């Protein structure tokens, strides 16, 4: 099978995908597409980071609080409207365009790096 973008192991090692717990969720009415602003706890060594996420079609604010997610934490911060997004929350697009979050299926400490 031919892959579109083959990369070397050392390239993959540069991507810091870490587990975090969503601790706050706010509406983001200024976003172009329906979104939330998430505050995520990545543990003592990394701390808290904010992110904008277009996940309103499948998740309520209440369902997201305390949810463990997987995010890329070493992209440069990106201005999205009035907020500075500090990490990229990962997920998978469904055919209808909605996003299903990437989550660990068992509990792991915040800040744990994807192996």
Overview of the structural elements:
- The protein is mainly β and about 120 residues long.
- It has a single domain, classed as Nucleic acid-binding proteins (OB fold (Dihydrolipoamide Acetyltransferase, E2P), Beta Barrel).
- It is built from two helices and nine strands; from the N terminus they run αβββαββββββ.
- Strands 3-2-1-4-7 form a five-stranded antiparallel β-sheet. It has a two-stranded antiparallel sheet with strand order 5-6.
- β5 (about 80) and β6 form a beta hairpin.
- The protein is globular, with a radius of gyration of 15 Å.
- The two termini are about 25 Å apart.
Spans of 5+ residues with little confidence (pLDDT < 50)?
Answer: none
Oligomer: single chain
Task: Note the overall shape.
Answer: globular
What's the number of structural domains? 1
Read across the widest sheet, the strand sequence of neighbours is: 3-2-1-4-7
Full CATH superfamily name = Nucleic acid-binding proteins
CATH topology: OB fold (Dihydrolipoamide Acetyltransferase, E2P)
User: What is the H-and-E element order?
Assistant: HEEEHEEEEEE
Biggest sheet features: 5 strands, antiparallel
Structural class: mainly beta
CATH architecture: Beta Barrel
Summarize the amount of helix as a percent range. under 10%
The helix tally amounts to 2
- What distance lies between the first and last C-alpha atoms, to the nearest angstrom? 24 Å
């Amino acid at each position: 099978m031919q892959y579109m973008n083959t990369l070397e192991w050392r390239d993959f090692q540069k991507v810091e995908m870490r587990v975090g717990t969503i601790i706050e969720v706010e509406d983001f009415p200024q976003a172009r597409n329906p979104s939330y602003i998430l505050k995520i706890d990545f543990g003592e060594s990394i701390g808290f980071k904010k992110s904008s996420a277009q996940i309103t079609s499948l998740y309520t604010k209440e369902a997201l609080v305390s949810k463990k997610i997987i995010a890329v934490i070493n992209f440069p911060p990106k201005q999205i409207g009035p907020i500075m997004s500090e990490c990229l929350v990962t997920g998978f697009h469904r055919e209808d365009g909605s996003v299903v979050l990437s989550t660990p299926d068992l509990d792991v400490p915040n800040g744990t790096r994807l192996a």
